[in-house]
Amino acid sequence: MINRPATPFLDSITGPADMRRMNDTALANLADDVRAEVISAVSETGGHLGSSLGVVELTVAIHAVFDTPRDKLIFDVGHQCYPHKVLTGRRDRIRTLRQEGGLSGFTKRTESDYDPFGAAHSSTSISAALGFTVGRDMGMPTGDAIAVIGDGSISAGMAYEAMNNAGAEGRRLFVILNDNEMSIAPPVGAMSKYLSGLYASPVGELHKMAEGFEAALPGPLRDHARRARQLVMGMPSAGSGTLFEALGFSYVGPIDGHDMSQLLPVLRAARTRATGPVLIHVCTTKGKGYAPAEKSADRGHGVSKFNVASGEQSKSRPNAPSYTKVFGTALSVEAQHDPSIVGVTAAMPSGTGLDIMGQRFASRVFDVGIAEQHGVTFAAAMAASGLKPFCAIYSTFLQRGYDQVVHDVALQNLPVRFAIDRAGLVGADGPTHAGAFDIGYMTALPNMVVMAAGDELELMHMVRTAAAYDAGPIAFRYPRGEGVGLALPERGDVIAIGKGRIVQEGTDIALLSFGAHLGECRKAAAALQAQGVSVTIADARFAKPLDRALIRQLIRHHKALVTVEQGAQGGFGAMVLHDLANDGLLDGRCQIRTMTLPDRYIQQAAPDAMYAEAGLTAVDIAAMAMQAAGIDLHKTRSRV
What we know:
By secondary structure, the protein is an alpha/beta fold. The chain has three domains: 8-201 and 251-295, Rossmann fold, CATH 3.40.50.970; 323-477, Thiamin diphosphate (ThDP)-binding fold, Pyr/PP domains (Rossmann fold); 501-639, Rossmann fold. The protein has 28 helices and 17 strands. A seven-stranded mixed sheet has the order 7-6-8-9-11-10-15, sandwiched between helices. Strands 1-2-3-5-4 form a five-stranded parallel sheet, with helices on both faces. It has a five-stranded mixed sheet with strand order 12-14-13-16-17, sandwiched between helices. Helix 10 packs antiparallel against helix 11 and helix 15 packs parallel to helix 22 (456-468).
């Protein structure tokens, strides 16, 4: 039996309305209960623990002060929303977090009225808050908007665009900067240093907090307090305001985000007195209140199920190294052979495997922070200088830098190497993190070469191929999770551009796989062969340029050709159909079918369950092939 913590204050409430009747001491006790509940729940489900523990007091304080859900609380990224879910009527389902049919690991509009804006990518919250604010001012039934954004997320350009717009508009809204000095990886850049300086300087902190308290005092007392501060600190110099004030925000802080005696009065004062945009700078500790999370390198950012007492996470024994590790190791080998190879990532060095190269060649790996647009253009100019940049970004995050891929890389035909991790469906993180669209959006671009690895050995070959290719941009995609267990050489081989391979030869049906569903095609072929059907399996390797000779060979010698990919409609299969249609080759005796992700978002579940929902299992592939070939299964069985 699972031993769950006693949570009397949490047990006494049903939602934020009850919290607004609690005194400050009770709210502090409630925060302790929420922290215990989150630790207990995530120990059973896994998930984003550290970020959620860091905002427990802040979440309690916001719901206690503001009138949610009429007031719109918008979490940036959303991976810190577990306390919010516990407090907003979803406690009874919190142990279904990130499970099939359960609660999303992020905010989600269809899940609750308390989630006004869905988020799982960073730096969108201020834009959304301003949108709700304009809606309010134009008569829509909404109250104040409160954006909670981290110090890592606020480094992205979109956050500055939104702040600049909000400052120019001058409308009343609240931005709470959750400064834990740690995003997914340690934050980088001038903004992080600026915020750290504010936090570290007791004089600056007193100066800012004194200004806030002065503004709330009656006139005579305010004047007296100001004179006292000036005697201690000296007269404030002209032009000494913060960056946020220069953008048009009233700045309050920094304040301790775990001290309810600071949080509650500051939020109440801001809500009472604000007439324009306000930025409240709150300093927190990621993983706060749970020692194993506080002490871990990533502050418990993403954890599997764990033992609450020890913090030890349950890990399944891998059968093979992950694709991410294979990429990182292969790139390190290439970097050893070629000093012009450099790596670029956007706040995900360990997530993309670039940390492996970084351990050996630290000066040649660049983490640009949560700034994919900048990262792509940065890599483009590095390529223009003669370097060989590998830009390693998850498929779902590369979408955020697509204009730069188009304009700064492809249009200029610069040899940037795009290592696209998390291709296909990714499991518990759900549709927001699925790598569904990169095949289509990369193959659409002139000059771009697009590859996909069928297994971990092919990934090694593609890393070396990308390193050797200097005629323009090149991309290769690979999934999350383990490889298939192949023996791996020390170094991959260079693949001829645009050349696929025959994995297995047959005569009735051809399965043409692009990417990591090759293993599922093997299973489908085995099932078909058990029914007396002869199957060819081909690994396309390239969506662009296509191996046109291979495809024509397949349609010439088979009754049916089925393309299979881990991506959305409009990807590899569409490229094949387009190519064949232009040569009038869709009219022959070979029936052609394409198998892709369906035209809908697939909700979180185990990856195998997600592919089953998508209709991309070996059984589905075999059935599609039989239908295309016009083979009657019952007659085939009788023949066997």
